[in-house]
Design goal:
The complex is a heterodimer of chains A (about 300) and B (about 350).
Chain A: H1 2-29, H2 46-55, H3 62-75, H4 87-122, H5 127-140, H6 144-158, H7 172-202, H8 205-212, H9 217-239, H10 241-255, H11 260-269, H12 273-301
Chain B: H1 2-9, E1 19-30, E2 33-45, E3 50-54, H2 61-69, E4 77-86, E5 89-90, H3 96-102, E6 107-110, H4 114-117, H5 124-136, H6 140-153, H7 159-162, H8 172-184, E7 190-194, H9 202-219, E8 222-227, H10 230-233, E9 239-244, E10 247-253, H11 254-259, H12 264-271, H13 311-315, E11 321-324, E12 327-329, H14 334-342
Parallel strand pairs in B: 3-8, 3-9, 6-7, 7-8
Antiparallel strand pairs in B: 1-2, 1-4, 4-5, 9-10, 10-12, 11-12
Helix pairs in contact in B: 5-6, 5-8, 6-8, 8-9
The chains are: A mainly alpha (about 300), B alpha/beta (about 350).
């Protein structure tokens, strides 16, 4: 297990190098000059553009730029953006908010999704099962920006239960509705996955054995059935942490949350690669690390998995 | 468990056998129709006695056993008639929480495929210990100690080192031993073994049968051994019930049945065992297919395959004729079958 973990960690190195290179290359490929439009109504003077290009190293060849990026990344020096504001500072302000939002979304996915899935799987064809099947179908067919704007309008504008946009401090209660929106798709999928898994395992021989042992129904379901049924569900939840981060870009945009998503959104529009590249890199790292953790967790959840 | 029952009957107050299945009817409601899996099965087993229930797939032998245990899937299964009396109390009329206490404690069961029947994500010792923790309220450490003792008792080598291993880390025979350890943990009065050796190779089969026989002798359990393999039962069983199409077609003390089968189906089963003295000859096989439970043949269910068939076999369902005090055969022409067997 230890050796497996180390090998997997080493495998991350080429992946990180590859993805960050592609990110740098694509940003470099973006059409237009990032500095040309920075002087209001008038075109920027050539001297300004040249100076800025020099300052941010845009006059260097791509490979040199990439080398400098790696050097800065390893030394933790992210520099400033085009406006001279510290990139690390902006990340530091935005990151905790996104983390909070994502964790809340994962919690909703796990608690509501698994709960609904278990209830509907245990009583297949019953009332709850039908309600869950219908509502998950509804959620799955709605893009999250539709769900987001709909809830914002309904709860925020019409009913006034929440503020339509999230204030700067973004506390946990303020983030409940955005987190539900962010979680909606995965929550529906989690419920369906749990249901399928429960239905499948309900018929298995070891559940029959557990009943034959004279265990209470609660123990048969809560220990024997659930422990096995949740293996694929937890794996799904783990691998989807990465996709939650990209979902956060839309959700944060709708509710005006000053997290990573909002930061990235503004930076892309302003062609400010000093923000785009580190944020994209961060998202890649989150994705890779969460996948690694899931793979390691899988061996703990299912003892039949062997890491050689 | 005995307390639960003695409240109602007074221990030992009843006169019959320890476990009696009486005229049991079970059917499955499927989309294709109603499958009559068990049609009036009656058998009994007493303490220290081994009953072998013999029959091919779909004969209703496992369904009967699952009904005794109360682990039949309902729906689609439905018990449409009969009684299952344990110590004289009809289990089918007991509320679920009392039936649950009987399972594992007084009546327990082992299954055919030990790998899928054990929970893959829990250590075997934990699964055995669960019996003590849940039924007896033992502490984790006490229960684990008892689990090791049980693993020793079913002769798993180095039990102490293997108690934390998972089912997939054991061989097939060892896994079945673990199932057995789990089933006998609480000294049940009845043990039902549903094809316990079918998934194992021949040498291991013999070991497992030997182990079951030994455990039964030591603790005076009643053993119901469900199998389709006549070769397995000869040494261990006291009496045999042969099932076909959800009915018992012959019951007999084991030696009588081997010597002079009284039903064409049992006779066919015996003749299809390979024998050393028939080397070189073609092996006998019962012609035709088992009956479709959705559309049972009229009359005797075996008549389409029966070499003794007469006209009335197609119309008259044979009752279980009494041959002697302990023998019965559901064949109109049992005398003929026996006579031919003696020739």
């Amino acid at each position: 297990m230890g050796r497996y973990a180390i090998r997997r960690l080493l495998q991350l190195v080429p992946v990180v190098l590859g993805t960050t290179f592609i990110i740098n290359f694509m940003v470099w490929q973006l059409p237009g000059d990032p500095f040309a439009g920075r002087c209001g109504q008038r075109p920027c003077p050539d001297a300004y553009i040249t100076a800025m290009r020099e300052q941010f190293g845009l006059d260097q060849p791509l490979l040199v730029q990439y080398w400098n990026f790696l050097k800065n990344l390893l030394t933790g020096n992210l520099g400033t953006d085009f406006n001279g504001v510290s990139v690390a500072g902006q990340l530091g302000d935005a990151w905790p908010i996104t983390i909070r939002l994502a964790l809340m979304a994962v919690a909703f996915e796990a608690i509501i999704g698994i709960g609904a899935g278990v209830l509907s799987g245990l009583k297949r064809g019953g009332f709850i099962d039908n309600v869950v099947t219908l509502s998950t179908l509804f959620l799955l067919s709605m893009p999250i920006f539709v769900t987001g704007y709909l809830l914002q309008w309904l709860l925020g504008v019409r009913l006034g239960i929440i503020t339509p946009t999230v204030p700067d401090e973004a506390t946990v209660p303020q983030l409940i509705v955005p987190a539900l929106v962010l979680a909606s798709l995965n929550m529906a999928f989690t419920a369906r996955l749990t249901r399928t898994s429960i239905v499948e395992n309900l018929r298995s021989d070891y559940v029959r054995t557990a009943v034959a042992k004279g265990l209470t129904n609660r123990r048969v379901v809560g220990i024997h059935l659930l422990r096995n049924s949740l293996i694929p569900v937890l794996t799904f939840l783990g691998t989807e942490v990465g996709s939650l981060m990209s979902g956060a870009i839309i959700t944060e945009g709708i509710f005006n949350i000053h997290g990573i998503g909002g930061l990235l959104w503004r930076a892309i529009n302003g062609q400010d690669y000093t923000i785009v590249v580190p944020v994209a890199t961060l998202l890649v790292l989150v994705y890779l690390v969460s996948n690694l953790l899931v793979d390691l967790l899988y061996g703990v959840l299912d003892p039949r998995i062997r890491y050689e | 468990m005995t307390e639960v029952l003695s409240e109602q009957t007074g221990r030992g107050a009843h006169s019959g056998a320890l476990l009696e299945v009486d005229n049991l009817h079970v059917e499955f409601r499927t989309r294709a129709g109603v499958a009559k899996a068990v049609n009036g099965v009656t058998y009994s087993v007493d303490a220290g006695e081994t009953l072998a229930v013999l029959g091919e797939s779909g004969s209703g032998k496992s369904v009967t056993a699952q009904t005794i245990m109360g682990i039949l899937d309902m729906p689609p299964g439905k018990i449409t008639g009969g009684e299952i009396r344990f110590r004289g109390v009809d289990l089918l009329k007991l509320p679920e929480d009392q039936r649950r206490k009987i399972r594992g404690e007084s009546v327990s069961m082992i299954f055919q495929d030990a790998l899928s029947s054990l929970n893959p994500v829990f250590p075997v010792g934990w699964q055995i210990a669960e019996m003590f923790r849940m039924h007896r309220g033992s502490s984790r450490s006490d229960a684990k100690k008892k689990a090791v003792e049980l693993m020793d008792r079913v002769r798993i080598p180095a039990a102490k080192d293997r108690v934390n291993d998972f089912p997939h880390q054991f061989s097939g025979g060892m896994r079945q031993r673990i199932m057995i350890a789990m089933a006998i943990a609480l000294d049940p009065e009845i043990l039902i073994a549903d094809e316990p050796t079918t998934a194992l190779d021949v040498t291991v089969q013999a070991q497992i049968m030997g182990l079951l026989a030994e455990l039964q002798r030591d603790s005076n359990m009643g053993l119901i051994l469900i199998t389709h393999d006549l070769g397995v039962v000869a040494d261990v069983a006291d009496k045999i019930a042969v099932m076909y199409g959800g009915r018992i077609v012959e019951n007999a003390p084991v030696h009588d049945l081997y010597k002079t089968p009284a039903h064409p189906y049992s006779k066919g089963l015996l003749e299809s065992i390979p024998r050393v003295d028939q080397k070189g000859q073609e092996l006998y096989a019962i012609k035709g297919l088992p009956p479709n439970l959705l559309e049972m043949p009229p009359g005797c269910a075996f008549h389409p395959r029966c070499p003794y068939r007469r006209d009335n076999c197609v119309t008259e369902v044979p009752p279980l004729y009494t041959i002697s005090g302990t023998r019965g055969s559901a064949c109109h022409y049992w005398r003929e079958v026996i006579d031919e067997g003696e020739r």
